[in-house]
């Protein structure tokens, strides 16, 4: 399965940013990509750096956005993973991945884990997803689509795997603050990559994470802004790197992913076989007091 990772920056307007995305999708198609993955909230700036009620207006175009990306998927005859700001009802919004299959809506996933940290005030905007962790069937396989903050939670990846996902996919928006020390930046990046490679290994599945690049100013002035660290990557079922992007360049990376290899890996590393399911009740609690 030829898979494309689309890593780019915000191009100052929604129109210009979408134009760049479509240009990169066209490039990926020329390289025979079948599955194309866009980054989290790829149509514009990462607006969650501050709490601003006017930013909710960005979700008013959700249905129009769905129709646009559906047409892109049809025009290029690809499976396309998008990440959109969904207005579900007045005052009710989600961070939603919509997956298109050659012009058809294959399904969607509403981000389940919602962060609330300096510069990442997503709880102000997004209601936690209520669709569960359900893989989405497409013409290229069963996709375990999750979103950004979900990538820190092994439970999400495990459930997707137990429900038959053939690949784990994480559209992402994560970066540094320029004022952080260089060693702290490196620790954060290493942790981000390591935890996701761990999900691939623990579940015997390939995994793709697609992040944005570029500096985006915090318009509220509370913080200076976020420099998104890119490093979009794909790994195989043993966590081995198949591809990795730079920290600061816009890139189209097309990588061949062998879904069938999961069977071979799971035969030699039978983690699913050896799970002690009767002993895991504590995982359903917030904290396990003795």
Structure description:
It is a single chain. The chain has helices at residues 14-30, 62-76, 154-162, 182-203, 261-268; strands at residues 2-7, 35-37, 79-89, 92-101, 104-110, 136-138, 141-145, 167-171, 175-176, 207-210, 213-217, 225-229, 233-235, 241-244, 251-256. The chain has a single domain (2-284), classed as Carbon-nitrogen hydrolase (Nitrilase/N-carbamoyl-D-aminoacid amidohydrolase, 4-Layer Sandwich). It has a 6-stranded mixed sheet with strand order 5-4-3-2-1-15. Helix 3 (154-162) packs parallel to helix 4. The mean pLDDT is 97. By secondary structure, it is α/β, with parallel strands linked by helices.
Write out the CATH superfamily name.
Answer: Carbon-nitrogen hydrolase
Spatial shape:
globular
Task: Give the terminus-to-terminus CA distance.
Answer: 47 Å
**Sheet with the most strands: spatial strand order:** 5-4-3-2-1-15
Number of strands: 15
Q: Any idea of the CATH topology?
A: Nitrilase/N-carbamoyl-D-aminoacid amidohydrolase
Q: What percent of residues adopt helix (DSSP H or I)? A: 10-25%
Task: Provide the β-strand percentage band.
Answer: 25-35%
């Amino acid at each position: 399965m030829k898979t494309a990772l689309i890593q780019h920056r915000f191009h100052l307007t929604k129109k210009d940013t979408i134009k760049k995305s479509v240009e990169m999708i066209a490039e990926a198609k020329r390289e025979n990509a079948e599955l194309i993955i866009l980054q989290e909230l790829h149509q514009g700036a990462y607006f969650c750096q501050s709490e601003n009620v006017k930013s909710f207006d960005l979700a008013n175009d959700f249905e129009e956005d769905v129709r646009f990306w559906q047409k892109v998927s049809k025009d290029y005859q690809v499976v396309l993973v998008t990440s959109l700001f969904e207005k579900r009802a007045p005052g009710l919004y989600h961070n939603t991945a919509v997956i298109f299959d050659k012009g058809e809506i294959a399904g969607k996933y509403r981000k389940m884990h919602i962060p609330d940290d300096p510069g990442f005030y997503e709880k102000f905007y997004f209601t936690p997803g209520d669709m569960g962790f359900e893989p989405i069937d497409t013409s290229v396989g069963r996709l375990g689509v999750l979103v950004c903050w979900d990538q820190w939670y092994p439970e999400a990846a495990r459930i997707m795997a137990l429900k038959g996902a053939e690949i784990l996919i994480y559209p992402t928006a994560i970066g540094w603050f320029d004022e952080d020390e260089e060693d702290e930046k490196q620790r954060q990046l290493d942790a981000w990559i390591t935890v996701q490679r761990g999900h691939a290994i623990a579940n015997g599945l390939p995994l793709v994470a697609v992040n944005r690049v570029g500096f985006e100013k915090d318009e509220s002035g509370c913080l200076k802004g976020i420099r998104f660290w890119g490093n979009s990557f794909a790994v195989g079922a043993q966590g081995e790197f198949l591809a990795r992007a730079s920290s600061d360049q816009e890139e189209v990376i097309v990588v061949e992913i062998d879904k069938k290899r999961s069977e071979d890996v799971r035969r030699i590393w039978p983690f699913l076989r050896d799970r002690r399911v009767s002993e895991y009740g504590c995982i359903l609690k917030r904290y396990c007091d003795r």
